[in-house]
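Retro notes - structure team

What went well: the batch runner handled both jobs without manual restarts.
What didn't: labels got mixed up in the shared folder, which is why I'm recording both outputs here explicitly, each with its sequence directly above its tokens.

Job 1
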Amino acid sequence: MIKIKESSRIKEIENKWNDSIENLLYKWHWKDNLMHKEIGKKLNIPRSTITRWFHQLGIPSQDSHRITKLNLLNVGPRKGPRAKPKIKSNPRFSVNREFFKRWSPEMAYVLGYFVADGCMFINPRGSHYIEFTSTDKELIEKVRKLIESNHSIGIFKSSNPHWKTKYRLQIGSKEMFKDLLKLNLTPCKSKSIKLPNISRKYFADFVRGYFDGDGCVVFVTYPRKNRKSLQKVLTTRFTSGSQIFLQDLWKLLQKYAKLNGGGLRKKKGGFELIFSIYDSLKLFKFMYKNVSSNQFLKRKYQIFQKAFNTLGGVDQLVRSSLCHSEGCRFESGRPR
């Protein structure tokens, strides 16, 4: 490899400008404030070659920002009016970044829903995001309103006609991300999630939020064997990939909602906690007592109301309970 001092191209430059290459590069860069690419144009040489010469000859380079600022300075008398100062514009998207810092009924409800159908992640560029997803647009709109967000809601339609349209609310906030970490939530939480430490005051709101995300209520009728009348069944269930989460949830529901029965079983992809008719009634009273309409999913609430109307009201529902004792057993997803 030819040494830089022995290069014919270097010798041509030195002869043309009647000076050494070190002095020329230093003068043009430090005194004339030319960038490497400008020196390259001056000598009709690629910028990468100029940079390599700087390294090989041990000539220090200026910070690019310094040169840019020097080039932007006004030179000579001002010929026009001064530029108007820049006005800081409001960010395009806004959200209550303090939302998860203090407990409230609204915060507990959104947290419960986030545990069910939310996720948090850091993208390859290091940006922190929290995300809510649901097939119920109503639920996503409620969450957006509660956290005071103006972010747009994404819509994802599948080519499969049997799959429902999904709605997504994605928020970039390192602060909210860290607040959720403090509440023991983590990325990839589906199978490792643990029940956050929640006071009794806000537990019903949290359960209702989780129920709107990963819970369901089913009211069905089916014929009885050797009978003309129809059997009416009301069940509620919570699902999760974490067995520990559902076990802890079950214990607190027994303690705070006074549920006597229930059953925990394994299913494909996770576990489910199931309650029959009598405990479903107690669960309804516990979750929806004195709650604002913007903190529950109407679709699931209306199924409860349909069951109560069909069965003749609360008193009739209690009398026709299918599960009066503790330790209800389940078979094929149906209480017996």
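Job 2
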Amino acid sequence: MITYWLFYSLTGAVAGLFAGLFGLGGGVIVVPILTFLFTAQHMPEIHILHMALGTSLASILFTSLSSMRAHNKRGAVEWPTALKIAPGVLVGAFSGSWLAAQISTRYLKIFFVIFLFYIAFRIVRHIAPEIKKPYTSGGIFGVGALIGAISSLVGIGGGTMSVPFLLRCNVSMHSAIGTSSAIGFPIALAGAVGYALNGSRIIDLPPYTLGYIYLPALLFVALASVTTAPLGAKLAHKLPVARLKMIFAGLLLVMALKMLTGLF
């Protein structure tokens, strides 16, 4: 058991670092690794991915707070924008967690793998969003709901979608990353609550779970990620982020291929 605690901590440390660097909640790292670890622990296969998603979102509550504080100290969070999009992501994330509970593990895993390939492809191709005019309030709510729903379905803080959206709204890269970390908190909150509620009626979950949230993994992932997220935020203002993104894309592809082989 102590070995798994160590792996949970390492997972959180890496996730926190990337969360600070790229404005991500770290879920694209946490979900695949927790899936592998839960499988190694012989947890019920039918619930493994749902538990990984729920636990990931719960951990992002802490990661996003830590990353948000670090970016805010550098003036990189546009609070008016974050507050405008928050209602949409709250509704979308809670709805997404309900939808995920209705989907079988196999199809949920297929969706997650496709999402990982998509994100890696965007990073490798350096797809830059076009600048658009400011969105209406209804448009911002709709985009927020979509970001929240997809984020909840794949257990992430939404940075892979909110950063490009903010860039389209003519927000600078550093501010987009910082604001994305703030947007990740309501996504994680609504998503985690949804997974906890939807999992509460499942009777064959392992001990120490709160619905689909596995508390031992949450504890160690959150503690480690909170420690490294500020470091990532600091490095985001100093390191060549473009080069780091290519490394990150490669890591996503490796994990996607690993999960893909597990489907057959």
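One thing worth noting from job 2: The chain has a mean pLDDT of 85.
We'll revisit the folder naming next retro.
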